[in-house]
Design goal:
312 residues; mainly alpha; Na+/H+ antiporter like fold; 13 helices; globular; Na+/solute_symporter_sf; membrane
């Protein structure tokens, strides 16, 4: 029951923010042009600040389990490769294909990871999850830029693809964050405070924009793509990654941390990235909403099964 309550406690604030966005839409408080402009703010300003803050807050002393890191990173890369092979066979539209591939491997590990580990093991065991987040979230962003840049539509030249990747705001923010982290550079306190405050805006604003732009009547148009990508995110990817982890003998807090990485719903930033990089943002918003709703029973079942078999 606690795991079900946990899922609800994590998911409901996200859904409420989406409902706020729907209220904005119904009250006609902003038009489509304004929503697109605001989403550009999220993608080019607020999300990079969030990523920079997350990297800078990493405690390098906790990154002490290379085998777990290698397993998690390998799982993400394999999921991305599987999505790249399978999803283009389901939809002929490159803009949809990129979003579907991203949904296969990219999860909301930051928002779900800490609460899940904290509930089961307490604050003392949060270091493992922090370690995974420090490595996997930047990997999510790098892969997402590569995938979405590759599936913008048409045949992009390699030079154009490389330019799009290295000039992406999230890649630049990651590079700056890693530079400051490894060199020990400390930002001027007022500047660090501004970047921190801007980073806190990204998730709530992205969800409100998602809700304001969400059109329920268009869900039927993407039925096939939604079934494929949401089932990949909540069923097939976690089944493969967590099943293999169990076979390899991974147990306890390490297994729960992998659960947060592989079984969480779509990342909130996936919608903003899809919109900002010319992919199908409508499909991204629908995938985020449905995976967030359906993750409540799936996460509950994972935790219940693991506890019943004594794995956690």
């Amino acid at each position: 029951m606690e795991s079900l309550i946990l899922s609800l406690n994590v998911v409901m604030p996200l859904l409420f923010l989406i409902l706020v966005g729907q209220g904005v839409r119904r009250r006609h408080l902003c038009d489509e042009r304004t929503l697109k402009q605001m989403n550009q703010w999220v993608f080019k300003l607020f999300l990079p600040c969030t990523l920079f803050n997350n990297i800078l807050a990493t405690d390098l002393k906790t990154v002490l389990q290379p085998q777990l890191l290698i397993y998690a990173a390998s799982g993400v890369l394999i999921a991305c490769a599987a999505g790249w092979l399978i999803m283009p066979r389901i939809s002929p539209d490159p803009r949809k294909q990129g979003v579907m591939i991203m949904n296969t491997y990219r999860s909301n590990a930051v928002l779900f990871g800490m609460p899940i580990v904290q509930l089961i093991y307490g604050d003392a065991q949060l270091g493992v999850m922090s370690m995974l987040i420090a490595v996997i979230v930047p990997l999510f962003n790098i892969l997402s830029v590569i995938v979405l840049e590759s599936f913008r539509g048409g045949k992009a030249r390699l030079s154009k693809l490389a330019e799009g990747i290295v000039t992406n705001p999230l890649i630049l923010a990651s590079g700056l964050g890693l530079l400051c982290l490894f060199t020990g550079i400390h930002l001027w306190k007022p500047l660090a405070s501004v970047i921190s405050d801007m980073g806190k805006v990204s998730t709530p604003l992205a969800l409100i924009i998602l809700g304001a732009g969400f059109q329920a009547e268009k869900v039927a148009e993407n039925k096939k793509e939604l079934i494929a990508s949401v089932s990949a995110r909540l069923v097939w990817t976690p089944l493969a990654a967590l099943g293999t982890a169990v076979v390899l003998g991974i147990r306890g807090v390490a297994l729960v941390s992998l659960l947060a990485i592989f079984a969480s719903p779509n990342a909130v930033s996936s919608y903003s990235m899809a919109e900002g990089m010319g992919s199908d943002s409508e499909l991204a918003s629908q995938g985020l909403l449905f995976s967030t709703v359906f993750c409540i029973p799936t996460i509950f079942l994972w935790i219940f099964c693991f506890s019943q078999f004594g794995f956690i």
